[in-house]
Design brief:
Number of domains: 2
Largest sheet: 7 strands, mixed
CATH topology of the largest domain: 2-enoyl-CoA Hydratase, Chain A, domain 1
CATH class of the largest domain: Alpha Beta
CATH superfamily of the largest domain: 2-enoyl-CoA Hydratase, Chain A, domain 1
Structural class: alpha/beta
Radius of gyration: 22 Å
Shape: globular
CATH architecture of the largest domain: Alpha-Beta Complex
Distance between the termini: 84 Å
């Protein structure tokens, strides 16, 4: 029964002598598995040396785009009602309250305006950490009011999409936002104001089926998942293996649904260049 016994005395470290490594000091890339100091990773805009773009928050995007990180937010406190009295594992209204406390944001989109290389720009950026960036009535209303502000003040608009699609807890109310935002974008086009659609990882469901694909230009970050139904659902439906890189930015660009892909470090300069082309 010697296999139950430790034959050689191993290295024994008393618990009191072990040193705890603080969380958040290192970043391990899920793509290439390389480990880098978190400080260096943040300095590189959370992009790995292999080119993998980690998901980032609205605050990160606003600090990248707006000059000196200065912007004015619209409708900060707007929150969803619960018209359907939806209950799953817990009431929808409780989930909203819990998510607000956890994230510090009030819904799945933040709208604000400021300067990008001295040019005016309204940005509506989706918050994936808020119930998967799902589109409910607040998302539609905040985009609509941002567009109204753009028309009144002659601002261009950019929407940063990052979402799993419609919010099931609002059912038809959520689906109605697809038509609502599309109609408001028509008003923006009638006012001859540019709209840049910026697709990040992931952009799926009703978001892709509405405002995400309606830009005067549609741009994306490298490797972003972009599609309507997910790859697994499509594979099971058609009963066939999908092409390599299916629904990723590069595949979507090759098939004509994007105008170009831009790395995070070039985002601000590229968008500013695009705005100058539009405004001239």
């Amino acid at each position: 029964m010697k296999w139950f016994k430790r034959l050689k005395k191993g290295i024994n470290t008393e618990t009191k002598d072990k040193k705890e490594v603080k969380e958040g000091l290192w970043f391990k890339c899920p793509s290439c598995k390389e480990v880098a100091p978190m400080e260096d990773h943040k300095a590189n805009l959370k992009v790995c040396q292999c080119g993998y773009h980690e998901k980032v928050s609205t605050n990160d995007y606003f600090s990248i785009f707006f000059d000196n990180g200065d912007y004015t937010e619209l409708n900060h406190d707007m929150t969803s009602a619960d018209p359907l009295k939806f209950v799953d594992t817990k009431p929808y209204v409780d989930r909203i309250t819990t998510t607000i406390k956890k994230t510090g944001i009030h819904d799945a989109i933040t709208t604000g305006f400021g300067k990008v290389e001295g040019l005016d720009l309204m940005i509506a950026s989706m918050n994936f950490e808020f119930i998967g960036g799902s589109m409910g009535s607040v998302v539609g209303e905040k985009i609509s009011q941002a567009i109204d502000y753009c028309i009144e003040h002659k601002y261009p608009l950019m929407i940063i999409s990052k979402s799993g699609g419609a919010r099931m807890m609002e059912a038809a109310y959520s689906l109605m936002q697809m038509a609502k935002t599309s109609a408001k974008l028509t008003q923006l086009a009638d006012a001859k104001l540019p709209y840049i659609s910026f697709l990040t990882d992931p952009t799926t469901g009703g978001i892709t089926a509405s405002y995400a694909m309606l830009g005067d230009v549609n741009i994306a970050e490298p490797g972003a998942l972009i599609g309507f139904a997910g790859p697994r659902v499509i594979k099971e439906t058609i009963g066939r293996d999908l092409p390599e890189g299916f629904q990723r930015s590069e595949f979507v660009l090759e098939h004509g649904f994007l105008d170009y892909i831009v790395e995070r470090k070039n985002l601000k300069s590229k968008v500013a260049q695009q705005l100058r082309m539009f405004l001239n």
